[in-house]
Every structure is written in C-alpha cells, then in structure tokens.
Amino acid sequence: MGMFGASTASVKEPPAxxxxxxxxxxxxxxxxxxxxxxxxxxxxxxxxxxENKRRRRxxxxxxxxxxxxxFPHSTGLKPFGPDHKRMIPELERCIRSxxxxxxxxxxxxxxxxxxxxxxxxxxxxxxxxxxxxxAINKPASANSIDSIKVELSENELLAxxxxxxxxxIRALDNKPQRAPHQTCQGRHTHxxxxxxxxxxPTIKGSAASGAIIVARPYAKSRGVKxxxxxxxxxxxxxxxxxxxxxxxxxxxxxxxxKNLATLRKGICQTAGHRRALAVIIxxxxxxxxxxxxxxxxxxxxxxxxxxxxxxxxDAHDTLWLKDYAERRQSFDRxxxxxxxxxxxxxxxxxxxxxxxxxxxxxxxxxxxxxxNELSAIQHAYNILxxxxxxxxxxxxxxxxxxxxxxxxxxxAADQIAAKTTGLDRGxxxxxxxxxxxxxxxxxxxxxxxxxxxxxxxGGGPIDYGTYPKQPTAYFAQASAxxxxxxxxxGTTEDAWILAGLDALTSRLLTTTYKRxxxxxxxxxxxxxDAKWGQKTExxxxxxxxxxxxxxxxxxxxxIGFGPTRKTFSEYxxxxxxxxxLNWRLATQPGGDRVLSIDTNWWKTFAATRLAMPxxxxxxxxxxxxxxxxxxLFSDHCVSEEPKTVIHKESSRERTIWEWKPGRPDNHDWDCxxxxxxxxxxxxxxxxxxxxxxxxxxxxxxxxxxxxRGAG
Length: 711
Known about the structure:
Blueprint: H1 15-42, E1 43-44, H2 53-61, H3 63-70, H4 82-97, E2 99-105, H5 111-124, E3 130-135, H6 138-154, H7 156-161, H8 163-172, E4 183-184, E5 187-188, E6 192-193, E7 197-199, E8 212-217, E9 226-227, E10 233-234, E11 238-242, H9 247-251, H10 253-266, E12 278-283, H11 291-296, E13 302-306, E14 309-311, H12 316-329, H13 338-352, H14 354-358, E15 362-363, H15 376-387, H16 389-395, H17 413-417, E16 434-441, E17 446-453, E18 459-467, H18 484-487, H19 493-510, E19 513-514, E20 520-521, E21 525-529, H20 536-545, E22 553-559, E23 578-579, E24 583-587, E25 593-598, H21 599-610, H22 631-637, E26 640-648, E27 653-661, H23 667-681
C-alpha cells in the first residue's frame, strides 16, 4: 500500500507517551496509598471507659464537686469560702434550668476561672449544647477559650475520666488542620479546634457529642450561631459573660445604656424560642450605676454582691490604720530596699498582735492572700492602706463611691507635683498680694512652707524646706542625714530647737521676695506650730519673746473639729478675740496670744484647691518646671486621707471631712495648710468652694469612714 493508505492501527506509540502514562498511574497509586495511610493515622481508637466512674458521676451531680475534683491547679487548689459555696450552686441552677444571673464579686475571687471551668462542666455532661463565652474585648475572649483548650487537652484527670472527648482532642496535637480528617472507628468526629471555636467530637453515646464553645468580644456577641455538618443552625443555650465593662465604659451613662442594649437586645435574645437561655455574668462593679449595679437592681435578673470584707476588725482604727499602717508606710524612698524593710516590720507587728488585730474581722475567703502575708485579713488591710479607700470600695467591696456625690478627695502625688508655674523658687506670681509662712516643729528638723496668695486665694508655695537643709532631695524625718542636734552640738533638745527657730525665722523674715512685675514682698504672717506635747510652752515662749511676736510671728494650734462641735463663729464674743475663716486668735490663760485653727476645715479647703486643674482661678500650684523636684513635698501632701462624718440634728445636717495621719511624714502638708491660714489672717478671702458641700448619705461605698462593722 502507498504511503497515505497505511492503517493507523499499525502506528506505534512514541516512547515519551508510554512513560507519561506510567508516571500518572504511579502517582495515582501513591496518592491512593497516602490517603489510606492518612486516614488510618487520623482515625482515633475507641475511647474506652472512664477510669473513675464514681468521681465522674459525683461531678455530674454537682458543679461545686466538679470544680474541686478536676482542677487541682485552679479551682481545686484551695478550699472554697462560704461565698463560693453560695454562688456556685446558683450558677449550677441557672445552667440546668435557664435564667439570668449576675454576680458582683471582687478581684481575686477566681470568677474568671470558675466561669471557664463551668463552661467545660456544662458541655461534658450535656447540660449545654452551645456555650457562648463573652469577654470585654478580643484578647480577653481569646484568653478565655485558650484557657478552656488547655484544660481539655492537657488536664490528666479530664483525660482519664472523659476519654470520649480527650482522646480525640489529644489526637489533634493542637493542630487545627487535622480536625476535618479525624475519624473515630471510621466515622468522622466533626471536631473543630479553631482560635475562637471548639466543637467537641461527635461520638456515639457521648453526652458531650458535638457540643460547641465559642468565644466572642462583648461588642461582637450579637446573633452568634454555628452551622453543624448536618445543616442544623445551632444557637447558644448558655452564655457566660466575664467582666463585660472597663473603666471607660462604666464611667458614662451613655456607654452603660449601650452595653445594656447589647445585652438585652442581642445576647439575651440569641437562643430563639425553643429553649430557655441561661445567661450568667460574673463581674466587678466599677462605678455607681454602671452596667453590673444596674442589673443587680433589675427584677429580671437574679444576683448578689460579694465583698472581700464582711466586717472590719475591732482594732480597725487603732492597731490596723494607725500602728500597722505607720510601720508599713515608714520608709525612705531614696534608700534601696527600705520599703521591703518597712513591710516586714509591719508583718512582724501583725504576727505579734495577730489575735487582737484579727478579732471581729470577717473576710469572704480566708485563702485570698499573697505568699508574704500571714492571712487574708492582712491582705485586705494591705490593699486598703496601699491603694486607698476609693480603690478598695470599688474593686473589692463592690460598693464604689457615688459619682457626683461629694466625698473626700483622694489626691495623687504625681498630679500635685505636675502643677508647676514655671517660675523660679522664691518668685511671687504677679496676681499675689500677700506672702505667709508656717513652721512645723520637731526634735530633729524644722519644716517650713512659704506661700504667696492672690485675693481670690489662688496661689501656692513659692519656697519650702527644712532647717537644717538636707543634702538629699528625698528623705524621712526619722532618718534625716543632718539634724539640729548635729548643727548645734553639746546643747539640750530645747536649746537646739530654740536655736533652730531663731535661725529659720530670721532667714524667712529678712528674705525679700520679688514678684513677677518686680515688686518687693516680705512675709506678712509667720505661724509656728505649738501643739507638740511638752514643747508647747517652749514655742509659746519663743513667739512671745520674738521681736515681731504678737504681730507677725504667732504660735498656732490645730484643733480637729467634729460635726457636733461648735464652730468658731458660734463662740461667745470675747474681749480681744479675733475670729476669722475657721480660725480664732485669742489670749490664753498665762497671757499668750495663740491662734487656734479648725484643721479639718482647712485641710479640706487645701485639698479642693490642690485638686483644681492647672490654670483654674483660685487653684494652687507649685513653683519650678520639673515635677520631680516636688516628689517629697507632694508625698507629704497625700499622707492623710479624710473620712466623711455626718451629724444629723432635728433642724439641720452637718457634714465634715475628718483628716487623720496615714504616713508618718505629713509635715509639708501641715505647713502648706498653715501658710494658707496665714494668708487668711492677712485678708485673703476664698471665692467659690469653701468647704465640703452636704452629702446625701454615708455608705460602705465611701469607705472613707471605715466604720467598725461596716459591710
């Protein structure tokens, strides 16, 4: 046959085509074997029986038992307190039957861990098919689900008693990409192990089969659902909300209403109509009338407040807030390790007097303490002393102070130090009309503050310091490097005090201060503290014999006026007595002219002026430019805290703020207040706020009163 008539059947396949076909067949064979081998590797063996059936049955009957039995490193680490034993059964009731519950509990109560472990309990025993865990933001919600994952994958007790769940989870080896291929005895488990979602393995006969746990930030918790492999659209039947607000969102009613709307319109409606939704909120009250406190008063919600301290100690005002607090806070910040020394000294004092100091005190949980503390009672008082009544009232007592309700101010040292004018030391602000000074007398040092005052009582210190002057910027009176005894050696205590007063008053009264506009100014009133034990007569004598005694130099004595005591304006008129703004200058028996000062009123006045923002008319500011220059001075200014005291009579209600020493060094604070009284004597008159306005009530929330038995 010719060339073009040849049969196609006789044409041979090129070698390259034969090789390509064999390669494709080989690849298919290898892939098939790989799939079979991978399927064999992804298959989980039969779970087997629980190791301790009795323990598992007991845990299924009681959430409290589950938390104790299966979490030796968290909720089972220490015995629960009475408040835990009341709250946890209520959580269980809500999980089993549905409903809405809010628990306002203090920091350190283990509320977050209890919430996370309760979610595990509900899913393992089939009490919830879909748990939604909600936290304030995305990092917090991620932390919650990570914590749940750690327990499900690493907890050995859960592994041996819930093998139908643990074996499948551990087989993933924390690799989410393995989940779609996992089978158990040839059947897909449909397990999910994502960053924000857990779906427990589908295992025949398992109460936890296919249970879902999803974590969401509060703002993204509306309308959460999950489509199962069978096409069913699952919705949450249990929602656990942990601390859904922060300081910012709790501070304004607009944000509170927004958060409540998210809860009521979104979260509480997420289950649909098929079954009762259980919603549990565990949180800390941050501010009065915030989201949590609002829910506590909502009849649609069940709930409780759990304070750290149910009742304060019998020795609250004496051994604790006086003796113990003084030891804990008596340290020199410039000395490395001195704070730790002071804390150890306070603990030693508590150890020695523990029976008397513990008497009458009742705390929520006796195991809530730090390692270096002897008891939960000491822990509570350490927080109160170190952080102040406002923090303790909010974060630990669940009774924050009322916004807008006038309450004792808590000044901050860094805020005071930052209020600088930019003027050099000794320069008088242009608006000032008078200069006054005050000296606080001690056996080692004399403290003084010189202040300049404008007619509206604006102004503040233009100079302060000690006699003798110290070589360091920060020091404690008890350990000052240079003392009067060293400057005046060989003399008696009275002699060196008199020598110190003579030297200091001479320097202050001969100093000419320059005002910004160039005007020359001198001190118009110099007050010296005479209320000092056996040295009262010494100071009176010094002032009486001073060349300017009785006119510029005067002895002064502070008096702590309570709400029941008559004010100076209510005193009977007396010949020669001069009554001013909560001060009185009168002749005492013996012939000395002595100035008496209502210290509670004047310290309140000083606190309100220091608290004013920089540049506010009538506010007080410090000289200089660097806040670090005023570190010691500002610490002295926050050494005392007030408490609100109310006295009710038939015709009126009197309210005062009582100031009591906290830290031992409050000398610059006393001098600042005294220099303000000197300004008042020179004719300066305050404009606006002159004292604490009436308050509506005193409650545990204010805590400044710290009344024995409060709570």
